[in-house]
Design brief:
By secondary structure, the protein is mainly α. It has 4 helices and no strands. The chain has a domain of 63 residues. The chain is rod-shaped and about 90 Å long.
């Protein structure tokens, strides 16, 4: 029974970690490009003060390209489609039936823990069906 509960919790945690990692990766890439753009803008300001005007154009072009790349990196976050909800898993009914079969042999504390786990499982399944 414990193995099934642990397996169910692991699959839920892995799915949540994958979703968070994708958003974090896009945000990290955009942040790096913004930092690069700011560095180029400061370099352009410094070089603009110099008597020559050749390096200014090059630095402004670098900053413009970095800003354009930052915007491109953020586009998937702004216009991403929500993935379709995953199909209902068969592990939740199996988990509930396993807990129901084991309930007569459990003590009072274990019954309270089992009821709490069933409540969490039902809350998670209800939460997933609303999205």
């Amino acid at each position: 029974m414990i193995r099934e509960i642990v397996a169910f919790a692991r699959t839920e945690a892995k799915a949540a970690a994958r979703r968070a990692a994708a958003s974090a990766a896009f945000a990290l890439v955009a942040g790096l490009f913004v930092l690069f753009a700011i560095a180029c803008l400061f370099a352009a300001l410094f070089l603009w003060l110099e008597p020559r005007h050749g390096p200014i154009i090059a630095a402004l072009v670098c900053a413009g390209v970095a800003l354009f790349l930052a915007i491109l990196a953020l586009l998937p976050l702004m216009f991403r489609r929500r993935p379709p909800p995953p199909p209902p898993e068969a592990s939740l009914p199996q988990l509930l039936s396993l807990m129901a079969k084991a309930a007569p042999n459990l003590g009072p504390r274990q019954l309270v823990l089992t009821a709490a786990l069933i409540g969490v499982a039902l809350a998670l399944s209800a939460r997933g069906s609303k999205k």
